[in-house]
Task: inverse folding
């Protein structure tokens, strides 16, 4: 009897890859995809790595596939953009061992800077897409993806969303099926994508997608559920669950393969139902194709939004006309995201704020430096963009304009794509100050290691990349390290470097306070009788500090991590640091 286990959707995808005999896994952490790779890393039979970015991860998987192994690369939806260069060409080259790309979309933008739909990227790349609806399907669809990859000679995408990735379901665990390496044979016409070869491969790709579309009508993952024929839904992924919850008697065409679409199956279903709805989150990928075939009675985005997550209530309201008010007996106050007590980014931003220096920002916890009371970060575009943005500003308006600007970027993000941007500033003789916020981890996605931490995804201790030496190797003369909690030292460095007629790098160093083993030996304690009620300690917005009714400051000792920032800011010794008492 097979063992049953409750797994996250991400864990189920990892289990599917394991059972399918995957040998190589590569990824860059990004919510909501991160747990896939963390789960895969627990299987000794699989080589798993954190790559410096998604492009590299895709190329590692492509190389492993060409060598004959089954491989997988995992990323969030914006990571697909970074990986798109090799993925588009891999679609032409095809595979040897099966290759699967897992793209985790984020409807609702819970942890992302945009809400793009990875199905559209896959359609442009001519890569087939499977979309599971629960954890059990996540495992089975992943296994199927490898079979389809090898049968049709193509990379295959598994599309997940935040709701699937982070919800749990019962999964049947099965044994791993070891796959022998596919023999490697030199084939430059297939794997060397120079124009003369790519032109021929494009013809094969078009034929492959046509054959897949025909075969999709008979794939078990595309199924019709006929019930009440007065209303029918075409849907896939998590939205299928909402359809079944809101309208259990409705007929459903559940698509597991969402690209290419099974035209004949869709036409047959549409002909049998009186009213037809297409219920898909984000873009009208299915709807546009269905309507292009002349099935004009289909109703989709005219009724359902292109923004955010869907729900069963959306169907109840817009199809059944049932108002769905969810009144809360208690008004819950809004809780915007904030930097943690003891976060070294708060210390750095407090100095930048005091000096009235603007920051071109990047992707990470430190993006929160854009909001009050720190209000330092002015721009955030994508991974690695802060440095290039500062460079563009300098070239547009001159070095005098950026005297009160810096670029801020985290250590992991710097290694992801910031290196290229810094190289560009050095090569094109740009002035400007780049601040690398080195907290020794990939903080925002859950404290994953990277090339500068000295530990791999599998936990192996390896030589760590020295960021300071790396910057100097680019020919940058002015590179400095400083403690993130040295307020006066930071102020002096920022004043000096922003007024320098050269490119400079300041690396602020202090580990993330949430890292295992990191702790400050002291706690900050208020001394009310010395407090002048000036509020200087409150300006950085540490959540451990509040104001008493009489205007003096209180510090929540359960929240305080003892970084000492508030004590440094107090000019009246009204906050002391005392040795923490262990519980």
Result:
């Amino acid at each position: 009897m097979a063992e049953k286990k409750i797994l996250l959707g991400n864990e189920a995808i990892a289990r599917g890859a394991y059972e399918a005999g995957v040998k190589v896994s590569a990824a860059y952490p990004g919510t909501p995809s991160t747990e896939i790779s963390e789960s895969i890393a627990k299987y000794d039979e699989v080589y798993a790595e954190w790559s410096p970015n998604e492009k590299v991860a895709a190329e590692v998987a492509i190389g492993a596939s060409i060598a004959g192994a089954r491989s997988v690369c995992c990323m969030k939806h914006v990571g697909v953009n970074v990986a798109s260069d090799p993925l588009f060409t891999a679609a032409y080259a095809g595979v040897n061992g099966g290759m699967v790309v897992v793209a985790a979309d984020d409807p609702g933008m819970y942890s992302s800077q945009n809400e793009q739909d990875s199905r559209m990227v896959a359609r442009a790349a001519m890569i087939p897409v499977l979309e599971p609806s629960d954890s059990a399907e996540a495992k089975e669809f992943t296994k199927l993806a490898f079979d389809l990859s090898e049968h049709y000679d193509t990379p295959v995408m598994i599309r997940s969303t935040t709701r699937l990735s982070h919800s749990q379901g019962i999964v049947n665990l099965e044994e791993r099926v070891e796959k022998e390496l596919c023999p490697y044979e030199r084939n430059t016409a297939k794997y060397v994508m120079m124009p003369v070869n790519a032109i021929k491969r494009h013809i094969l790709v078009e034929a492959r997608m046509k054959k897949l579309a025909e075969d999709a009508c008979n794939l078990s993952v595309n199924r019709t559920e006929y019930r009440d024929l007065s209303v029918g839904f075409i849907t896939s992924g998590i939205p299928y669950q909402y359809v079944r919850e809101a309208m259990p008697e409705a007929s459903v065409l559940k698509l597991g393969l969402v690209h290419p679409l099974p035209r004949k199956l869709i036409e047959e279903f549409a002909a049998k139902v009186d009213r037809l709805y297409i219920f898909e989150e984000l873009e009208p990928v299915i709807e546009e194709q269905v309507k292009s075939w002349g099935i004009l009675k289909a109703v989709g985005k005219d009724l359902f939004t292109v923004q955010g997550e869907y729900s069963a209530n959306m169907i109840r309201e817009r199809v059944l006309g049932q108002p769905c008010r969810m009144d809360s007996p208690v008004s819950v106050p809004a809780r915007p995201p904030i930097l943690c007590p003891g976060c070294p980014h708060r210390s750095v931003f407090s100095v930048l704020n005091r000096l009235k220096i603007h920051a071109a920002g990047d992707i990470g916890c430190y993006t929160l430096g854009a909001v009050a009371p720190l209000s330092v970060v002015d721009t955030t575009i994508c991974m690695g963009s802060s440095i290039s943005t500062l460079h563009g500003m300098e070239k547009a308006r001159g070095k005098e304009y950026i005297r009160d600007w810096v670029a801020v970027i985290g250590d992991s993000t710097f290694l992801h794509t910031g290196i290229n941007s810094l190289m560009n500033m050095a090569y094109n003789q740009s002035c400007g100050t780049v601040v690398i916020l080195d907290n020794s981890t990939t903080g925002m996605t859950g404290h994953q290691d990277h090339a500068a931490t000295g530990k791999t995804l599998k936990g192996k201790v390896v030589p760590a990349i020295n960021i300071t030496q790396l910057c100097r190797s680019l020919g940058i003369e002015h590179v400095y390290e400083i403690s993130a909690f040295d307020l006066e030292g930071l102020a002096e460095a920022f004043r000096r470097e922003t007024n320098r007629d050269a490119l400079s790098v300041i690396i602020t160093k202090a580990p993330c306070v949430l890292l295992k083993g990191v702790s400050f030996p002291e706690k900050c304690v208020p001394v009310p009788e010395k407090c002048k009620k000036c509020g200087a300690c409150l300006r950085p917005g540490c959540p451990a500090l509040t104001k008493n009714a009489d205007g003096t400051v209180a510090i929540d000792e359960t929240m305080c991590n003892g970084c000492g920032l508030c004590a440094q800011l107090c000019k009246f010794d009204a906050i002391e640091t005392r040795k923490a008492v262990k519980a």
